[in-house]
Please model this.
Amino acid sequence: MHGTSKMLALASSITSAMAAVQGFNYGSTFTTGAAKEQADFESEFKIAQALSGAPGTFNSARLYTMVQGGTTNDPISAIPAALNTDTTLLLGLWASAGDATFANELQALKTAVSTYADSFSSLVVGISVGSEDIYRESPTGQANGDDPGASPDTIVDYIGQVKDVLTAAGISVPVGHVDTWNAWSNSSVTSVIEACDFIGIDTYPYYQNTETNGIDDAKYLFDKAVAVTAAAAGSKPIWVTETGWPVSGPTENLAIPSTSNAKTFWDEIGCNELFGVTNVWWYTLRDADPGTPSPSFGIIGSSSTTPLYDLSCSNVSSSSSSSAVSSATSSAAAGGSSTTLSVAVSQSSAASAAAGSATSVAVGGSPALSSGLPSSQLSLEAQTSTAAATGSAATGTGSGSGSGSGAGTGSNSTVAATATPTPSLTTASTGAGNAVSLGAAFVALMAAMLAL
Model:
């Protein structure tokens, strides 16, 4: 026990010294459809950085599009806003509207690279090519009524185009893709994983409405979603690009939206597993902007800068909760440092794996895609036409939660539980290529522990 305490203390000290990126998701429009301007982004970024009681500074922003609202291919004004507020960016290029629209996204990226060349590498922590495109292309996404997506081949092609732009400019920035856990577990996305420098996962236990998904099981479901993704991702670092719990809205099976439950999810997932350990963009700072969507995930309301619940991690126990066990470990590697979160899925998932049983899971798209939310996708998707369903049903090792659509209703996706993987969420301080495996991290920590 004493040795374990020393190991965890060492891990904690290293993690503090190499704090990972943490921030929120930001759409390019208000709920009215009006485009956000630079001043709007600056206001939101400053509010995020000044959140009362927050565990560290939330000074990173994940975007969904490179294009400023109301223009054809001008760079989004969130970029100069980020420069003025010392906010880092996970840039996004919308990839589900066809080649012509993606060409405009790419042109906006080229212009941004040229305009902000001196600051680009330090400002941008990564670039996501698309968001949940493969999920929406799948039969599950189509059955849930979500908008057209893009095939794995299309995403791989687009990733290559983005990397070509960066190479030509002499810029080194991790390029990846964001999708749901069941999309990542599908064998058809192997080529996408190979093309990515990082894997972005969107997951919402709230929407996993065919399983026991009350707040007491949310951490367990989150860990399973990460496990499925990690099993498919291999050595690629995993960034949590969307997760959260609604403060209001409809009940999804046993999942009840409330500020109390949102606080519990923040504590058990954010404080216990993510903040300061891996790159994470929470969903979301504010979605009542100005109208209130249902469900609503915002930490603050439309006319306030005060959090709706306590953001401090003061009530978080050092021991694990629910039916999952998590521990933070850190290690250093030649050429760069990384911080790794180990999430061990136990109990019922292990039993399911041993029995080789299948778990049916309801999966939907990001709440950012729901009507009325301030997401950049909404204005872009108006340009798209219905795509044919060409994807295959998702299967993977283990079972997990997926992010849900606005109403959270839709058909199920079956995931075969054939193993109990232990995932690694890794943030590399000098780029995704410096990620260290869980095994190496564990060995390094054990050696350090024995030396104490």
